[in-house]
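Hello,

I think I submitted the LGQLAAA5 job twice by accident. Can you confirm which output corresponds to this input? Input:
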Amino acid sequence: MIETPRIKVCGLTRAQDAHDCARLGVDAIGLVFYPDSPRHVTLEQARAVVAALPPFVSVVALFVDPAPAQVEAVLAAVPVDMLQFHGDESPDFCRAFQRPYLKAVRVRPGLDLLDYAGRHAGARGLLCDAFVPGQAGGTGATFDWRLLPPALPLPLILSGGLDPENVTDAIRRVRPAAVDVSSGVETAKGIKDAAKIAAFISGVHDASV
Ligand SMILES: O=C(O)c1ccccc1N[C@@H]1O[C@H](COP(=O)(O)O)[C@@H](O)[C@H]1O
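Support: Only one job matched these inputs. Its output is below.
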């Protein structure tokens, strides 16, 4: 019996998409505070997205090697539940904000994921994404799931190129605690599609039957 993983949809920019995510049963949404991303949101946009959510849908704020002041500015302006560090942030840096956080890692051959997870033991989960040279994330690329060790000391959040077509197979193979999707439920970067989100959620539930 496969336990149904939690579902995070990342890279929202519009209140309407937040409303759809909540209506369809998404557990968490992600806001990208990385200026180089096409899904980057201003503080004002972020507040509008969060305001469209009912209680009990978590808000994750995503950063890539931010300055501490950038994180503090978001925390002061937007009600977020969790931070996501998607760059080369050190464990000390991630812990400094005294908030629950996810540590993302871009999986590639030769990377010792057990060692990486051990160093980031303070994280609430290890988010495993694809490695695409020159790009920090949100690429729509998958990675070789066989590179993941059979057990990790942190909850595994599977990400990287997931979509309604491959998510059932991904869950059956990897058995993650949660899945995270961005490109696979979009019509354009930062523009989510309710039908694709519904199909993605249906694919997640199909893994358990
Ligand atoms: O979404 C982005 O633009 C982004 C930019 C920089 C770092 C991470 C980003 N998104 C994260 O990447 C994963 C995988 O995205 P995709 O599904 O392959 O498009 C996504 O879930 C976000 O957590």
